[in-house]
Amino acid sequence: MNEGHLSGEGRIVSQANATSLNKTRRQRVELKEEAIVETARRLFNEKGFGKTTISGIAKGCGVADGTVYLYFKNKEALAQAVLEAFYRDLKETAQDGVDALDSTEEQLRFLAEHHLTKVNQERRILELLPIIGVSLDNYKDSKLFTLNKSYARVFDRVAKSGVKSGVIKRDLAPWVLRDVFYGGLDYASRTMMMHERTDNFSAVVDGLMAMMLVPKSAANSALEDVAERFDKIAERIEKSIG
Amino acid sequence: MNEGHLSGEGRIVSQANATSLNKTRRQRVELKEEAIVETARRLFNEKGFGKTTISGIAKGCGVADGTVYLYFKNKEALAQAVLEAFYRDLKETAQDGVDALDSTEEQLRFLAEHHLTKVNQERRILELLPIIGVSLDNYKDSKLFTLNKSYARVFDRVAKSGVKSGVIKRDLAPWVLRDVFYGGLDYASRTMMMHERTDNFSAVVDGLMAMMLVPKSAANSALEDVAERFDKIAERIEKSIG
DNA sequence: AGAAAAAATGAATGAGGGTCATTTATCAGG
DNA sequence: CCTGATAAATGACCCTCATTCATTTTTTCT
Question: Which of A13, A14, A130, A199 is a Cys-bridge partner for B127, taking CB atoms 3.0 to 4.6 Å apart?
C-alpha cells in the first residue's frame, strides 16, 4: 500500500478538528473499497461469479482475504456493489449522450448503440443479477432497483418526447416500448455473440426503429398513390372490356 | 430402488440375445439418468445453480453422491443436460401449439403466451445458460446450440408464412423479428416479475403484435380491395380470351 | 452356483467461502 | 516524542460441498 505519502496528508490534518480527521481516514477507506470493487468487477467479468475467488480478488488489489469481509458482508454483497457501480456508470453515460443530441431518432439510435457497447463490454457483469437473488423480497427498496429505474427513465424521457412530437407511434405503452427495446437489444447481442458476428448491430437497431417509429408518410402515401393508380387502371380495363 | 420386479424382467431377457440384453440394461440406466435430471431440474429451479448441492440431488432421487458422477462428468454437465431437457420440451410444446392453429396472428399470440408461461415457470433453469460457460468455443456444435436453433425455427416458420401472406411487415429481417420478439418477452417477464405484476402479459403481447403486424389501415385495405378487383378482372379476361 | 462385468456406494480429499483472535497502523492528548 | 485507545488488517482455521476412488453390491452369463 502507498500509505507512506498519505501519512503526510494525515499529519497536516491532525492539526484540524476531529471531523476533518475522520474524513481523511474515511477517504482512505473509500479508496480501498473502490479498489476492491474495481478488482472484483474485472475478475467477475473475466471469469464469472462462480469461477472468481475471494482470494483472487484480495490478491488482485493487494489485501488479505479477511480484509474483503471488512468491506462486504459476503461474496454476493460484493457482486451487488459491482452491479451498482456498473449501473451507475451505464446510466450516467447514457444520459450524457442523450443530452448531446437533438432528434428523437438520433437519441434512440445512440441509446441502442451505447447499450450494446456497454453490455458487450461487460457481458458477465449483468449475469450477476440473477445470481445474487432476484427473488429478494427487499429488492424494491434496494439501491439496485433504484439505479435500474433511473436507467430506465433515461429511455422513458426520450420515448415520451418522441410520442409527444409524433415521431413514435402513440398507441404503444412506454414501458412496453422500453421492454421491447432493451430486451430486443440484449437478445440480439447474445445471439450475435454466439454466431460471432458483431457486425450487424445496425440491422437490429434499424429493425427496432422501423417497429417503433411512425413510418415516414412518404412511403405510406406512395402506397396510397399506387392504390389510386391501380384504381384508375381497373376502371379503364373494366370499360374496355365491358 | 424398485429393482425387485425388474429382476424378473431381467431373467426373461436373459434368454434372448446379447443385443436385447444390453437394451434392457440401458433402459434401466436411462430411467435412472432421467430421474437424476428430473430431480436436478426441480432443485436448480427452486434454488438456482449455486445453492443446489450434488448431495441434495442425489438424496432427492435416492442414489449415492458418487452415482451422479457415473452419469454426468460434473455439476455443469448435469446442468447442461437439464437445459437440454428444458429446450426439448419447450420446442416440442411450442410446435404442437402452433400446428393446432391457423392464422399467423393466433400462432404468434400462442407462441408469446407459451414462451412467457414456460419461462416464468422455470425461470432459474434459463439462468443456467450463462453459468455453464457461454464462451465455450465448441458451443456451435453442442446439443444445446442445435436445440436452441430448432426452437428458433418454430418462430421463423410462423414469421416466414406471415410475411408471405402479408400479415407481417415485410421490411423486417426474420432474425431481427425473432430477437425482438423473444427478447421483448423475456425482458418484460423479468420486469413484471420484479414489480410483482404478472397480470399485464397481454399488454406486452399486444404491443409486440402492433409493432410486427401490418396495421389494418385504410391504405392497406384499399390495396387489398384493388388486388381483389384485379383478381376478378383477370378471371374475366382469361375467360373472354380463352 | 459362481466367476466376471457393471453399477453403486460413501468415506476421503481439497478448494474455496466465511470467522475471529491476534497484530499492526493511526490518532489525540500530554 | 511517547502512550493508551481505537480503527484497520491479517491469515490461520473451520465448514460446506464438488469430486474421486477403493470397496461393496447387483446383474449377467455359463
Answer: A130
Cβ burial of B95 (10 Å; 0-12, 13-18, 19+) is: middle
Of A24, A41, A72, the last residue of a domain is: A72
Which residues form the domain of A9?
1-72
Distances A26 to A10, A14, A16, A202 between C-alpha atoms, Å: 12, 14, 15, 46
Q: Report yes or no on whether pTM surpasses 0.85.
A: no
Expressed in angstroms, the distance from the first to the final Cα of chain B is 78
Cβ of A134 < 7 Å from strand C? no
Q: List residues with CB under 7 Å of strand D.
A: A 25-26, 28-29, 32, 62-67, 69-70; B 3, 6-7, 10-11, 13-14, 18, 21-22, 24-25, 52-55, 65-66, 69, 74-76
How many C-beta atoms surround the C-beta of residue B214 within 10 A?
Answer: 13
Choosing from B56, B72, B88, the residue where a domain stops is: B72
Q: Encode chain A (242 residues) as per-residue pLDDT tens digits.
A: 333 332 222 222 222 233 334 567 778 889 999 999 999 999 999 999 999 999 999 999 999 999 999 999 999 999 999 999 999 999 999 999 999 999 999 999 999 999 999 999 999 999 999 998 766 567 877 899 999 999 999 999 999 999 999 899 888 888 899 999 999 999 999 888 877 777 778 889 999 999 998 876 555 555 666 677 677 767 777 777 76
| Residue of B50, B145, B240 lying closest to A131 (CB–CB) | B50
Residues B149, B109 within the same domain: yes
Residue A127 and residue A46 in one domain: no
Q: Confirm or reject contact between A48 and chain B (CB < 8 A).
A: yes
